[in-house]
Amino acid sequence: MIYFLKFGAAWILPPGIFILLLIALCVKLFKIDRKLSITILVFTLIFYLLCTSLVAERFMGWLEELHTPPAQVETSGADVIVLLGGGAISQVPDVDGVGALCASPANRLLTAVRLQKMLNIPILISGGQVYSDSGAEAEISARVLKSLGVPEDKIITETKSVNTTQNARYSAFILRERESKKPLLVTSAFHMHRAMLNFNLQRFKPIAYPTDFTVAHNPTFHYTKLRPQAEALLLNVTVMQELLRTCVTEVFGI
After folding, report:
1. Are the beta carbons of 99 and 136 closer than 8 angstroms?
2. How many CA atoms, within 13 angstroms, populate the side-chain half-sphere of residue 2?
3. Where are the domains of the chain?
4. How does the average pLDDT of the chain come out, rounded?
5. Cα dihedral 37, 38, 39, 44 sign
6. Of all residues in the chain, what percent are helix, strand and coil, respectively (each to 5)?
7. In the prediction, which pLDDT does 240 show?
8. pLDDT of residue 8
9. pLDDT < 70 stretches in the chain
10. Cis peptide before 15 (omega within 30 of 0)
11. Could you give the 3-state DSSP secondary structure of residue 158?
């Protein structure tokens, strides 16, 4: 009964209600302009599929599985952890200061802390202040790392980058200054493929350590995965954005 209610509720809230309205429009147009009606119906079907977790899990799962963490990270030879930013919020209260990380970079940071304690190597945090009202990410991350027990001399900040291309460029400059040869790259699983590409363009071949996974590997089917959800649409849009940005990087190197 619980699952049935979830499935039904999805059709009276966006995006489900919009899909039903588009189908109603197709029915009304069918006698007036059959070709237009069928065209709208096809696009409605595509939109509906993009709003289902059935499609999102497979689409996002494919992207997240392009890179996997090393089986034995202790013997990987990594000499520095490079932690990529993903968003921060300014002027909000935090446990030991002002400003907080968004969900994805917070997950990335948690993984970086655990790796640092395991390997006892420095963490290079890459991420600046993207907008005037967003947080200075590397600075916020450094504060959180200290509060979690990471020694100050094990924290390096790169505060100028505002996108993945700049993450790689400015981090590579610091890595060369420090004569680091084998960085361990930590970022969200969906973001790892593009991040690796950007570091490769800077003549670095980091060890990929994806984290912040959003979908399960080998997902099982349940009929509620056919309900339209804004969350599923967001996952699919995220994958499409990553593919588009990867193409731009491959073609233009930016």
Report:
1. yes
2. 0
3. 2-64+217-252, 73-211
4. 95
5. positive
6. 55, 15, 30
7. 98
8. 86
9. none
10. yes
11. strand
CA atoms within 13 A on the CB side of 183: 30
**176, containing H or E segment:** helix 164-177
* Beta-strand pair 97-101/88-94: antiparallel
- At 150 the pLDDT is 98
Please give the pLDDT value at position 36: 96
* Predicted pLDDT of residue 196: 98
What pLDDT shows up at residue 112? 98
Cα–Cα–Cα angle for 239, 244, 250, rounded to 5 degrees: 125
Task: Quote the pLDDT of residue 216.
Answer: 92
Q: Is residue 245 within 8 Å of residue 197, measured between CB atoms? A: no
CA-only gyration radius of the chain, Å: 22
Structure token pair of residue 191:
């973001």
Please tell me the distance from the alpha carbon of residue 158 to that of residue 29, in angstroms, as a whole number: 57
For tokens 């995220």, the residue is 238
User: Quick one: pLDDT at residue 72?
Assistant: 93
Residue 81 burial (CB < 10 Å; 0-12/13-18/19+)?
Answer: buried
Q: How many CB atoms lie within 10 A of CB 13?
A: 12
- Token couple for 177: 């200054």
* Nearest C-alpha neighbor of 155 from the set 94, 218, 109: 109
CATH placement of domain 73-211? 3.40.50.620
What is the distance between the alpha carbons of residues 167 and 146, in angstroms, rounded to a whole number?
22
End-to-end CA gap in the chain: 50
Residue 15 CB neighbour total at 10 angstroms: 19
Q: Measured between alpha carbons, how far is residue 146 from residues 3, 160, 200, 248 in Å?
A: 43, 21, 30, 37
